[in-house]
């Protein structure tokens, strides 16, 4: 009898923790590093600048490829332009058509290779007007034929190369010591 009473008490206590009419999760967004935005039924998801291959930041005058996903849940559309006030120009090559109920992946040079059958586009910001460092986001505007424009705040993405762990060989043949 006592275990049944304890069980019933636990059920009643836990029922008080239910979400009710107002939840905390209804306003949460996905935990991704990149910027996201949408217009009508077209969305830009997880937009980042590819991690720089020659250092930890992009120098003024250099080019920065974008990594992101474009998704379309509405009628056929097409990416017609990409701009940023931080770049002199942007180049779009590959698949710019966005058929209904599809996704197109933009991959940079450091990203994992695209899966077989995956639709891809390459988007590069050229002639950066200032240094772009980690932690800084820049506005990038994507213009679609039907959905209109979507402006997204875009950070530098993660480094796809594995970081060396403590005790791993480092260039030059030396290893880090214990520190005791």
- Residues in helix, %: under 10%
**Whole-number average pLDDT?**
83
Which residues form runs of ≥5 with pLDDT under 50? none
SSE order in H/E notation? HEEEEEEEEEE
User: What distance lies between the first and last C-alpha atoms, to the nearest angstrom?
Assistant: 59 Å
Strand residues, percent: 35-45%
- The assigned structural class equals mainly beta
The CATH homologous superfamily of the domain at 32-154 is called: PCu(A)C copper chaperone
CATH topology of the domain at 32-154, what is it called?
Answer: Immunoglobulin-like
What does the radius of gyration come to? 23 Å
CATH architecture of the domain at 32-154: Sandwich
* CATH domain class of the domain at 32-154: Mainly Beta
What oligomeric assembly is this protein in? Answer: single chain
What is the number of helical segments per DSSP (H or I, 4+ residues)? 1
Largest sheet data: 6 strands, mixed
Structure, explained:
The chain has one helix spanning 2-15, and strands spanning 35-39, 42-49, 64-72, 77-83, 87-94, 97-98, 102-106, 120-128, 138-144, 148-154. It has 180 residues and is mainly beta. It has a domain at 32-154: Immunoglobulin-like (Sandwich), CATH 2.60.40. The strands form two sheets. Strands 1, 2, 3, 5, 7 and 8 form a six-stranded mixed beta sheet that branches. The radius of gyration is 23 Å and the shape is extended. The protein starts with a helix and ends in a 26-residue tail after the last strand. The mean pLDDT is 83. Keywords: Signal. This is Copper chaperone PCu(A)C.
